[in-house]
Automatic annotation (TrEMBL):
<dbReference type="GO" id="GO:0019674">
    <property type="term" value="P:NAD+ metabolic process"/>
</dbReference>
<dbReference type="InterPro" id="IPR002504">
    <property type="entry name" value="NADK"/>
</dbReference>
<protein>
    <submittedName>
        <fullName>NAD+ kinase</fullName>
    </submittedName>
</protein>
<keyword id="KW-0521">NADP</keyword>
<dbReference type="InterPro" id="IPR017438">
    <property type="entry name" value="ATP-NAD_kinase_N"/>
</dbReference>
<keyword id="KW-0547">Nucleotide-binding</keyword>
<dbReference type="GO" id="GO:0006741">
    <property type="term" value="P:NADP+ biosynthetic process"/>
</dbReference>
<dbReference type="GO" id="GO:0005524">
    <property type="term" value="F:ATP binding"/>
</dbReference>
<keyword id="KW-0067">ATP-binding</keyword>
<dbReference type="InterPro" id="IPR017437">
    <property type="entry name" value="ATP-NAD_kinase_PpnK-typ_C"/>
</dbReference>
<dbReference type="Pfam" id="PF20143">
    <property type="entry name" value="NAD_kinase_C"/>
</dbReference>
<comment type="similarity">
    <text>Belongs to the NAD kinase family.</text>
</comment>
<dbReference type="Pfam" id="PF01513">
    <property type="entry name" value="NAD_kinase"/>
</dbReference>
<dbReference type="GO" id="GO:0003951">
    <property type="term" value="F:NAD+ kinase activity"/>
</dbReference>
<keyword id="KW-0418">Kinase</keyword>
<keyword id="KW-0808">Transferase</keyword>
<keyword id="KW-0520">NAD</keyword>
Length: 491
């Protein structure tokens, strides 16, 4: 082994397996080998089995799989850092276990028993993941997002910010308009004997641009408002979203499960590190492609030449834009938590929208519009258009036409692994308008399309109690679900 890989200082290994962590000191002159690390896990954790688990190490940015190869071991050695704060000085590295993928899942063709076992195993593991509790301890920054232009929430925001300053060491960020709002009284706060020194050093103000650049520094998001405030907070994060705590200070309450009066008790429990139940809310990745080429036209007609599906004869110069998925860089991309909506805007005519699943043509929808929603969005526009109520942890794509021209055009629920594409038909009489969670509204011309897939960045919402109870209570309180006057007796 090269001499520059020798470790004159003891090496501290932080080993994590499932919910437990152990510290092990490796005091040999040579760094540990792959087998040394595996044996350390087996010694410290009785449940660790090298046939079922592998190991990952932290390279400063994220966890990387550690393999028994000279190249991987060399990379591992490079990320052994020296901790100057300890006496005597120690080198340290962070490692954690990682469950190995079963061999039969690595193959495309397997037996009946293997595929059944894999499906059962996946179902059990997913159930276990959804039952896990989220541990939120000391985080670097807390972001408070409030309902805009509601003066009654400003003093409550001040109260909540002071609570965080007094009870936790996190930096507290409130919306930048609070700095000059007289009801927030920032100048009085920093001159206060009680919290002045805390507010001056740790109370800060955020903008959407700041959140975009520093999203990884935020450990917790607290919303104060209604469902729209939660959607706005989620939209600030176009990649990973921190855990979200929602306080009900708005109109509807499908997504807001805490009452503001209980914030001291609720936040103390959440920040205690004992774990809180969460609801896993899927988001959609929406990518818009504009048609930048002028479609060819027939010499006998002013109509655009398209495929046979449009009942127009093809020629050698026919247009196949409608059949081929778009290529090249997208014109717009965003994450949505509720729904994407395509509608006819102020136009009187019906839209013609072509729907594709994994690039297979499904149907052409003639309607006032179309809603593509998540399970979370099933209680919003999709429900108003006749869609089903779907439990929020169900990863699915809800396709709900808005006032379709034919009664046979019904709502559909597809698995989230499907890649949807909606294209404005070349024969549509009117252009379409698209919006994403009610934002970023823009016009789509003929042959423009939107691709919708399940996002890699879901939202974890901290529950008030049991995750099922939160959702069913919201149905009763917000929809007055299944409430009616009781039937009178026959006699």
């Amino acid at each position: 082994m090269p001499s520059d890989n020798h470790c004159p200082e003891p090496l501290q290994l932080r080993l994590s397996h499932q919910d437990y962590a152990r510290y092990v000191i490796h005091d040999k002159s040579d760094p540990p080998t792959y087998n040394d690390i595996i044996e350390a896990f087996e010694k410290e954790f009785a449940e660790f089995n090298r046939k079922l688990y592998g190991v990952e190490f932290h390279d400063g940015e994220g966890f990387v799989e550690l393999q028994d190869s000279p190249e991987q071991i060399a990379i591992f050695y490079e990320h052994i850092s020296l901790d100057e704060s300890t006496s005597p000085r120690r080198r340290k590295v962070v490692l954690r276990s990682r469950q190995n993928t079963p061999e039969h899942l690595k193959r495309d063709v397997i037996s009946v028993d293997a595929i059944v076992d894999a499906a059962v195993c996946l179902h059990e593991k997913l159930g276990k993941v959804l039952k896990m509790k989220l541990r939120v301890e000391q985080c670097k920054s807390v972001l408070i997002v409030t309902k805009p232009q509601d003066p009654s929430i400003v003093p409550l925001t001040r109260k909540l910010a002071i609570w965080f300053l007094n009870n936790h060491s996190s930096d507290v960020y409130v919306n930048d308009h609070m700095e000059t709002n007289p009801d927030f009284a920032y100048a009085d706060m920093i001159s206060s004997e009680c919290v002045g020194h805390l507010a001056e050093s740790r109370l800060k103000f955020w903008t959407a641009g700041w959140v975009k650049e520093h999203s990884r520094e935020i450990g917790l998001v607290v919303t104060m408002g209604g469902d729209g405030t939660v959607l706005y907070a989620a939209g600030l994060f176009q990649q990973a979203v921190p855990p979200v705590v929602t306080f009900h200070l708005g109109s509807l309450g499908f997504l807001t499960n805490f009452q503001f009066e209980e914030y001291p008790k609720a936040l103390a429990q959440i920040m205690s590190g004992h774990g809180s139940p969460t609801t896993f809310r899927q988001r959609l990745d929406c990518t818009l492609y504009k048609s930048h080429e002028e479609a060819p036209r027939s010499s006998h007609s002013s109509r655009i030449l398209v495929c046979k599906r449009h009942l127009i004869s093809r020629t050698e110069n026919g247009c196949i834009t409608c059949e081929m998925p778009p290529t090249g860089p997208p014109d717009f991309n965003t994450q949505v938590m509720n729904e994407l909506v395509l509608d006819r805007g102020a136009n009187a005519g019906l839209l013609m929208l072509e729907l594709y699943a994994d690039d297979m043509y499904l149907t052409t929808i003639q309607a006032d519009g179309l809603v593509i929603a998540t399970a979370t969005g099933s209680t919003a526009y999709s429900l108003s258009a006749g869609g089903s109520l779907v439990y929020p942890e169900k990863t699915a794509l809800l396709i709900t036409p808005i006032c379709p021209h034919t009664l046979t055009c019904r709502p559909m629920i597809l698995p989230s692994r499907v890649r949807l594409r909606v294209c404005v038909s070349p024969n549509s009489r009117v252009p379409a308008w698209v919006s994403f969670d009610g934002r970023d509204r823009m016009e789509l011309q003929k042959t423009d399309s939107v691709i919708i897939t399940a996002s890699r960045y879901p939202l974890l919402q901290i529950c008030h109690g049991d995750r099922k109870d939160d959702w069913f209570r919201s149905l009763v309180s917000s929809l007055h679900w299944n409430e009616r006057e009781g039937q009178k007796p026959l006699l």
